[in-house]
Design a protein that fits this description.
By secondary structure, this protein is α/β, with parallel strands linked by helices. The protein has 2 domains: 2-156 and 326-361, Rossmann fold (3-Layer(aba) Sandwich), CATH 3.40.50; 159-323, Glycogen Phosphorylase B (Rossmann fold, 3-Layer(aba) Sandwich), CATH 3.40.50. It has helices spanning 20-34, 65-82, 116-126, 137-144, 186-196, 210-220, 237-245, 262-269, 282-285, 298-306, 313-323, 326-340, 343-361; strands at residues 2-6, 38-43, 53-56, 86-89, 106-110, 130-134, 150-152, 174-177, 200-203, 229-233, 249-251, 274-276, 292-294. The strands form 2 sheets. A 7-stranded parallel sheet has the order 3-2-1-4-5-6-7, sandwiched between helices. The chain has a 6-stranded parallel sheet with strand order 10-9-8-11-12-13, sandwiched between helices. The longest helix is centred in the last third of the chain and has 19 residues, at 343-361.
Length: 362
């Protein structure tokens, strides 16, 4: 198959620091090519993902109207040059506008709540040529209200980057790893840790302006350096692996409808139980009492912390392997592509590609 992937224009693929979905796209590029597919990538001009062909976005802001027009034209041009069997967009549905009435199969993937207005007119214009995926069943349920066919395909982690730690020290700390803002619940993690006498390591970036800065200054900073509450800053992949591996649990008691949250799968890959809340996609990730706990109050979080010895860390790793590994998720995307591309078209293009390679080699 010839597959053209698109990313949002703001960050390169893969990202230099943060950028969860850009990491997923890079995994798709590499692994689909390993499976024999030809992959093109439309993304930020600084992208280094090893796609067969790169097409840079002209505009770098998703919400800018002028950039949106430029990027719509850029995607149209990329399709004409690359001649894909299928376009898979992780960027804006607007960029697909000139392609919507085309019979070319298109997949639109959402990592956040879909817009009813844009998805509904996308369905009306494209009909059966447009298929949707969401990073969780939670996202798909919201999208189905606008029509269209929706497939839940979770985000993934590369298991080889995360070391399974079957045992931990008796005094192992709890870890909060996420953006440090109200909706992620760091303040509740602090209270639960203090009430149970456990150390808590807080990792992640925090806001420096507006409400995010006030949250950091008022609800987090006053507790740092006291009762075992420490801030370790932002962490890279190597530091994240070490931090999660040594933790008794990752506690991120969210206060919003989380679309997925790759960090939860990363914790499980290390064998580390997750303590969070039954909101958004978390019930799809954590099986209470098996690989973590879902709590609805600080009191329940304290009980969950006390019950951590009942969790077998092997179950956590197995959950990551079975449901959130890169190989499992790439399988699901590949199967979806095959179901959307007419078999005769795929075979014809494959034979043409082989003939062209033979001509070049001779």
């Amino acid at each position: 198959m010839r597959i053209l992937l698109t990313a949002d224009p703001e960050l390169p693929v893969p990202p230099q620091l943060y950028g969860g979905i850009e990491r997923i796209i890079d995994i798709l590029v590499i692994r689909l090519q390993t499976r024999g597919h030809t992959v093109g990538l439309v993304a930020h001009q600084d992208s280094t993902s090893p796609a067969h062909q790169h097409f840079p976005w002209l505009g770098l802001k998703s919400q800018d109207k002028c950039d949106a027009l430029q990027n719509t034209a850029a995607l149209w041009s990329a399709v004409r040059q690359f001649q894909p069997d299928l376009v898979h967009s992780f960027s804006r549905i607007l960029y697909l506008l000139p392609l919507l009435r085309s019979p070319l199969p298109k997949v639109m993937s959402y990592q956040r709540r879909p817009s009813h207005r844009t998805t509904s007119w996308g369905v009306k214009l494209a009909g059966n040529s447009l298929t949707f995926t969401g990073c969780s069943e939670h996202i798909c349920r919201q999208g189905r209200a606008s029509g269209g066919i929706w497939h839940p395909i979770h985000n993934c982690v590369e298991l080889e980057k995360y070391t399974f730690e079957p045992t931990i020290a008796p005094d192992a700390p709890l870890v909060f790893l996420s953006r440090i803002e109200q909706i992620k619940g760091a303040h509740n993690a602090i209270v639960a840790a203090r009430n149970t006498g456990r150390r808590l390591l807080i990792a992640g970036n925090h806001g420096t302006t507006g409400e995010a800065r006030r949250y950091w200054q008022d609800q987090i900073v006053p507790h740092l350096g006291k009762d075992g509450i420490e801030y370790v800053g932002s962490v890279n992949d190597i530091q994240k692996n070490a931090l999660l591996g040594q933790a008794a649990a990752m506690i991120v008691p969210i206060e919003w409808e989380e679309p997925f949250g790759i960090v939860f799968a990363e914790a499980l890959a290390c064998g580390t139980p997750v303590i969070s809340c039954p909101l958004g996609a978390l019930p799809e990730i954590v099986r209470p009492g098996i690989d973590g706990y879902l709590v609805s109050s600080v009191e329940e979080a304290c009980t969950a912390i006390q019950n951590l010895p009942e969790i077998d860390r092997r179950n956590c790793r197995q959950r990551a392997e079975d449901c959130f590994s890169a190989s499992v998720i790439v399988d699901k995307y590949e199967q979806l592509y095959c179901s959307l591309i007419p078999a005769n078209l795929t075979n014809k293009k494959s034979n043409n590609d082989k003939s062209q390679r033979g001509m070049r080699e001779s």
